[in-house]
Each structure stands twice: as structure tokens, then as C-alpha cells.
């Protein structure tokens, strides 16, 4: 896990790839400008055959064309961002900003523009006067870049039209969330009870800035706790918002008679353990992925959009994530040695994830029978994969809430009966 957010920021920065492409274009143009293709060379039939004046006119035309294309690409990208924000969820924007295809396409266009414009400094001009000599190989590459740009433009239109499709958006969110579950959700030392609580003599370590907790990396704090014979409890969970100066970590020793912990001695370890940024990220935050999928359902159920089928599709993707979580140990992570707990990282339990996945959708879709039945299917799948009776009890409680919502929201008895029957069947399956 990265210790800083620089890598995550660079992945979503649209300027990184184009900047690298500009530098590469300038270096390539400088190298090719120094290469002369002699008569009789195998490459000679492939190089540009026109005069220096023809080459300058062509480079000017390529530069002007690429400026228009870049404006078109940026316009299409902004339209996609606006559409995804208003139609799906504002939290989906990160997906489009981090799209490698968008970044590479923009890089090709910018590189072509810079390469052609930079060529005007050398093609047909020498020592302040016109000349007939010019780097033919370098001009030939400008033509090749123009052709590549046109191919990339067609592919970009194809890609962006698919990228804004709701199915593609939801699959992308599901895939990223499943990757976080597999690689970043802790399995070692996970507990949902008997957690060490800070005693009255515990000393707080204040948050070093306001923002969202993006990652928790226990190793630095665990080393510091061992070195200074401390127990440390991290207050916020991944994805939660903290304020600068409020307690972020509690430190304590075994008894009140022991020397008080030295906050300054572990300050660096706390900063390495808890990374705070201005936005939530998907690096360790499973709840953020679930939030995005639930947002899509809630947005689809709003009167402005009124698209229950999209809400049902979103629930199908939610069921994949929720069933995977139900089969795993969930809760807080407690690490230590020699039978003593050293570091506590608070985490979310199954109750939180089930409520996050279904709560708002249940409340917004309580008058739509098909949405309620999709909720019941999602809960049924989660109940099937639950590890223990406690997890099944959580699922059963939410099934009862769906049945209650149906009775309150569905007006016609003909529509209500199948939902209630479905809910009671799921309840029997989960509680047997």
C-alpha cells in the first residue's frame, strides 16, 4: 500500500500523460531532425518528397487540425463527465478521470500538435533565411502522427460512447470494489467483539489535517507501539471524515501509574499509518464502492429520472459485492504480540454494509414492487453466503424491513401479495 496519496492523485490527473507525451515528442523530433536520409537508402521511398515550403504548409495544417481535434476531445470528455455526474452519481467522476484510454488519446493529440508546431522552427528556415534543406524523416513522422491521431479519434468516440453506458459504469465500480475486497480488506486479527477500549488515562494524538481517511497502514504504528510499549487505537475508519485537532489515535500504557506516552515520539508513525486526503478513494474503501452503486439506484428512483430498471441492475451488482462480504470475517483489526493487543483499527461490520447497500434504496423504492423484489433477491443471496448465524440474523432483520416497507408503500393488494410472499420465503430460507 502506498504511504502517500501522490500515486493515486497522478492516476487521476489528466495532465500527466500529455506532459510526458510532449517531452517525448520534443526529444523524438530533436533526434530525427539530426538524421539525414541519403539517396538510395531503403527508407528513401518512404520519406516526404515535397519541398521545404510544402513541408511548412503541411506542418501548419497539422497544427491547426490538431487544435480543433483537441478541443473536440476535451468537449466530449466534459460532456461525459457532466452526464455521469447528473445521471449516475457525482462520485463516479473519478472513474472517468482515471480512464487510461482518455489519457492516452489526449496524449497522442497533444504530442502531434507539439511535434508539428516545434517542427516549424527548423523546417524551411536556417539562420534567419529560407532554405531548401529540411529533416525529411522528421516531417514524415508528423504525417504518421496525423494518421495515428485520426485512428485514435475514431477509437475515442467508440470508447466514450461505451464508457457512459450504465452497464459499463456499474461493472467498472463492481470490479474495483471486488479488487479492494480481495487485496486490501484485512483478514488477520479481525474481531467484532472484545476490542481494547481506551482507558481514562489514554492520551490523544490529534489529526494533522481535516479530510477523509483514505488508507490505514498498521505496520508503522505497530512498530512504534512495540518500541514504546504502548497500545494504540485508531479512531476513524477508512472513508470517514476527520477534523484537524480532534483525536485521531488514542495511546495508553497498561496502568495509570505508568509514564504517559510521548505523543511526539509516535507522531511520524501515526502520520504513516493514517493517510488523510480531501476526497474518498477506492484504495481501501469498500464502502465507497458500495456507496457508488447505491447512489446509482437512488438517482434512478428519483422523480426526475424515474428509471426503476436501472435501480434493479444496480442491485444485481450490489448483490455480488454484498455476498462476497458476507462470506468474509468483518469488523475491526486488532494486531499485537505475546498475547497483548498493540494496535486497533476500527472497521465496518456486516450490518453496516447491508444497511449501506439496501437502506436508502428500500426507502426510495418502497412503492415499486419490482425494486422491492430485487432487494429481497439481493438479501437472499447475501444470506446464503453468510458465515454464521449472526450474519443471517442481520440479513433477516433487513428482509423484515423490506416487507414492512412494501406494506406501507405498495398501494394495490395485487402488487403487494407477491412481494410479501417473496419476502416470507426469503425469511424462511435465511432463518432455517
TrEMBL record:
Alphabetized UniProt keyword annotations: Membrane, Transmembrane, Transmembrane helix
Keyword Membrane: yes
Keyword Membrane attached: yes
Matching Pfam families: DUF2254 (PF10011)
Source superkingdom: Bacteria
Parts of the chain that traverse the membrane: 12-37, 57-83, 104-125, 137-157
Protein name, UniProt field: DUF2254 domain-containing protein
Organism expressing this protein natively: Angustibacter luteus
Amino acid at each position: 500500500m502506498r504511504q502517500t496519496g501522490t500515486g493515486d492523485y497522478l492516476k487521476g490527473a489528466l495532465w500527466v500523460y500529455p506532459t510526458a507525451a510532449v517531452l517525448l515528442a520534443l526529444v523524438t523530433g530533436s533526434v530525427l531532425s539530426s538524421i539525414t536520409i541519403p539517396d538510395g537508402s531503403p527508407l528513401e521511398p518512404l520519406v516526404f518528397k515535397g519541398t521545404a515550403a510544402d513541408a511548412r504548409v503541411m506542418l501548419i495544417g497539422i497544427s491547426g487540425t490538431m487544435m480543433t481535434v483537441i478541443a473536440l476531445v476535451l468537449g466530449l470528455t466534459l460532456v461525459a463527465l457532466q452526464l455521469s455526474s447528473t445521471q449516475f452519481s457525482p462520485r463516479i467522476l473519478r472513474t472517468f478521470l482515471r480512464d487510461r484510454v482518455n489519457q492516452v488519446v489526449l496524449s497522442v493529440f497533444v504530442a502531434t500538435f507539439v511535434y508539428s508546431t516545434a517542427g516549424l522552427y527548423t523546417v524551411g528556415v536556417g539562420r534567419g533565411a529560407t532554405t531548401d534543406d529540411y529533416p525529411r524523416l522528421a516531417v514524415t513522422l508528423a504525417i504518421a502522427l496525423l494518421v495515428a491521431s485520426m485512428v485514435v479519434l475514431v477509437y475515442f468516440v467508440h470508447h466514450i460512447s461505451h464508457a457512459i453506458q450504465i452497464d459499463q459504469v456499474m461493472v467498472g465500480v463492481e470490479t474495483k470494489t471486488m479488487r479492494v475486497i480481495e487485496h486490501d480488506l484485512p483478514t488477520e486479527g479481525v474481531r467484532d467483539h472484545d476490542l481494547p477500549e481506551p482507558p481514562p488515562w489514554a492520551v490523544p494524538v490529534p489529526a494533522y489535517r481535516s479530510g477523509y481517511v483514505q488508507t490505514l497502514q498498521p505496520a508503522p504504528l505497530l512498530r512504534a507501539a512495540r518500541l514504546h510499549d504502548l497500545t494504540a487505537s485508531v479512531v476513524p475508519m477508512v472513508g470517514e471524515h476527520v477534523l484537524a485537532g480532534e483525536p485521531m489515535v488514542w495511546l495508553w500504557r497498561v496502568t495509570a501509574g505508568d509514564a504517559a506516552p510521548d505523543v511526539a515520539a509516535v507522531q511520524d508513525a501515526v502520520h504513516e499509518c493514517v493517510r488523510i486526503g480531501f476526497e474518498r478513494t477506492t484504495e481501501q474503501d469498500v464502502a465507497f464502492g458500495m456507496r457508488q452503486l447505491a447512489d446509482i439506484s437512488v438517482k434512478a428512483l428519483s422523480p426526475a429520472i424515474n428509471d426503476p430498471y436501472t435501480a434493479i441492475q444496480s442491485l444485481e451488482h450490489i448483490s455480488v459485492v454484498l455476498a462476497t462480504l458476507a462470506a468474509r470475517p468483518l469488523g475491526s483489526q486488532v494486531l499485537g504480540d505475546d498475547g497483548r493487543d498493540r494496535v486497533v483499527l476500527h472497521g465496518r461490520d456486516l450490518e453496516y454494509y447491508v444497511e449501506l447497500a439496501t437502506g436508502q434504496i428500500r426507502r426510495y423504492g418502497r412503492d415499486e414492487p419490482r425494486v422491492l423484489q430485487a432487494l429481497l433477491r439481493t438479501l437472499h443471496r447475501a444470506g446464503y453466503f453468510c458465515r454464521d448465524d449472526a450474519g443471517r440474523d442481520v440479513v433477516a432483520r433487513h428482509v423484515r424491513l423490506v416487507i414492512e416497507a412494501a406494506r406501507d408503500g405498495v398501494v394495490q393488494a395485487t402488487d403487494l401479495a407477491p412481494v410479501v410472499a417473496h419476502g416470507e420465503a426469503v425469511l424462511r430460507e435465511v432463518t432455517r
